Amino acid sequence: MALLASCRRHLLSSLGPLGASSRGALPGARAASTFALPDLPYDYGALQPHISGEIMELHHSKHHATYVANFNKALEELAEAEAKKDAAKLITLQGALNFNGGGHLNHSIFWTNLCPSKDWAPPSGELAAAVEAQWGSLDAFIAKFNASTAAVQGSGWGWLAYNKTAGILEIAATKNQDPLVLQGLVPLLGVDVWEHAYYLQYKNKRPDYLKAVWNVVNWKDVAERYAAAKAG
């Protein structure tokens, strides 16, 4: 129950700006929230040739949309279970909230972490200094990140994260759609390595996809997340 409550609080607070609105619930229950699929800040074909327009359209309009729909459904069931004080139902909903809420949160970060290659610029300022301090160079960081993320078994994510306790950057991985907060880390940059993120273009060659994605990483967005994490 503690994990469920913690995850739910994080998801609701983190996703609030991403299209959540208050929704009526049963008497005595918390108000449920409806989450919406966020618009992409670029066209589906804007990341070509590194990520195809077909992949982006399916990934966003089908896969992400399904996480949003199922997350909203789980929240409605949660509100009903809270109203009925149905402890067993609250516990069984943990998986659906984590998976679908995590899927919505992770993808909402992922879209803004990307940009057309014409807008690409390397990290600078405090973020660049932190990367160099931690790994020696941007190239060395990318090599370690790609090795770690290519090794994710099955489906999951590779992350550049901020460890508030240690005050340092870290490379992390999560399985399926687990949100990084469950590791006590702040997500700055996420790379989706579910097959639907790359298979239509790169087939089973995940390392090729990981090599290409750095051409469309939005380092400005990553830097903004880093500054916010340090200030928060």
UniProtKB/TrEMBL annotation:
Keywords: Coiled coil, Manganese, Metal-binding, Oxidoreductase
Domain Manganese/iron superoxide dismutase C-terminal: 123-225
Catalytic activity, reaction form: 2 superoxide + 2 H(+) = H2O2 + O2
UniProt-listed Pfam families: Sod_Fe_C, Sod_Fe_N
Positions of the Manganese/iron superoxide dismutase N-terminal domain: 34-114
GO cellular component, as recorded: mitochondrial matrix
Compartmental location: Mitochondrion matrix
EC code(s) of this entry: 1.15.1.1
Reported cofactor(s): Mn(2+)
Gene3D superfamilies in alphabetical order: Fe,Mn superoxide dismutase (SOD) domain, Iron/manganese superoxide dismutase, C-terminal domain
Coiled-coil parts of chain: 64-91
Superkingdom to which the source organism belongs: Eukaryota
One MF annotation (Gene Ontology) recorded for this entry: superoxide dismutase activity
SUPFAM superfamilies given in the database record: Fe,Mn superoxide dismutase (SOD), C-terminal domain (SSF54719), Fe,Mn superoxide dismutase (SOD), N-terminal domain (SSF46609)
Binding site for Mn(2+): H59, H107, D192, H196
Similarity annotation: Belongs to the iron/manganese superoxide dismutase family.
Function: Destroys superoxide anion radicals which are normally produced within the cells and which are toxic to biological systems.
Name the record gives this protein: Superoxide dismutase
Organism in which the protein naturally occurs: Ostreobium quekettii
High-level lineage: Eukaryota, Viridiplantae, Chlorophyta, core chlorophytes, Ulvophyceae
